[in-house]
Amino acid sequence: MAVCRPIVNVFKVDGAPSGMTIKMPAVFSAPLRSDLLNFVHDQMRKNSRQPYAVSAKAGHQTSAESWGTGRAVARIPRVRGGGTHRSGQGAFGNMCRGGHMFAPTKVWRRWHKRINVQQRRYAMCSAIAATGVPALVMARGHRIDRLPEVPLVISDEIESVKKTKEAVKVLKSVKAWSDIQKVYNSQRFRAGRGKMRNRRRIQKRGPIIIFRKDDGITRAFRNIPGVTLINVNVLNLLKLAPGGHMGRLALWSAGAFRQLDKLYGTWKTPSLKKSGFHLPQPKMTNSDLGRLLHCREVTSVLKPRRLHLQRPGPKVKKNPLKNIQALLKLNPFAIGEKNMRIARQRYVEKMKAKKREELKRKAEAISVPPENKAKKVKSEKSVKA
């Protein structure tokens, strides 16, 4: 949303303050929607295009027919006849010399675009509001260092200026001539093929002069390079925001400036000229979000800032068949089952070891010969004696 002052001073054609003030129209506080303005500008420019297409007969003005298969050549249609290099050459195809182009252009292409009325009006409100923001005007390249005010409102005497030398004098008096000098310095030849198409010279844009009644102002200013004149009742987005860039330097007549509230209305009253149109309401009355978040009224009801907050790392999925903690989350009785399996396994191992010992003793008893066994018994008896 553009921030604007409540009143605007009116200057005479000689540059001196007239002592009159005008209330700032509400449209200068409209939201600045550069995205919407760019879209509407792009669609509007398409409405001035002229259809173009190649001839329907192009590439087909010859007699040709395919030779078919069996001749070891491509099946493209070939020119009939003989006695010339042209006979036997390929025809019609877009890969052939003298053939038609791929996807020939047609005049029934959708050249023009329909734009919603509300979108057009919203974009125009944004363009008007941007002319009152000095930062946007300077960012667009206009020389406004010596200008007394932005937007600049001149008394209705400017509408009665009839001579170009008087118009130059007015621009110099209100300190706007430096922007015209910028236009003079930017005049140059166009780069590219446009020089051959009646577009040889190019130059930058100067100020736009918006008036209410034409008493000679158009004839006086029209020969000054870069200057655009337009009636306030028929404002054009293509002239108020050339190239889709908002912030063109605008010089208003007092009558045209007063007309804006009737054309676009205020937030309390609808427009008198445009049926069903209400001035777009900004989503935020104060768009300085950082200042709002750090003001005392907001910070006093918020929790204190948490320092050294450990951010969780990337979540790793753990396998419950290998991780007991993950398994216990799924089955709290898993630890008891695991202990029972361990105890059963130990018991089985103990029984297996006991059985192995018994088998080992039996194997030793079978492997000893009878005589060795008798000697062994005697030796045991002697030891006992």
Automatic annotation (TrEMBL):
One of its GO terms (biological process) is translation. Keywords: Ribonucleoprotein, Ribosomal protein. Residues 50-69, 356-385 are annotated as: Disordered. It comes from the Eukaryota. Residues 372-385 have a biased composition (Basic and acidic residues). Residues 275-346 form the Large ribosomal subunit protein uL4 C-terminal domain. One of its GO terms (cellular component) is ribosome. One of its GO terms (molecular function) is structural constituent of ribosome. Gene3D superfamilies: 3.40.1370.10. Pfam families: Ribos_L4_asso_C, Ribosomal_L4. The keyword Ribonucleoprotein applies. Belongs to the universal ribosomal protein uL4 family. This is 60S ribosomal protein L4. The lineage of its organism: Eukaryota, Metazoa, Spiralia, Lophotrochozoa, Platyhelminthes.
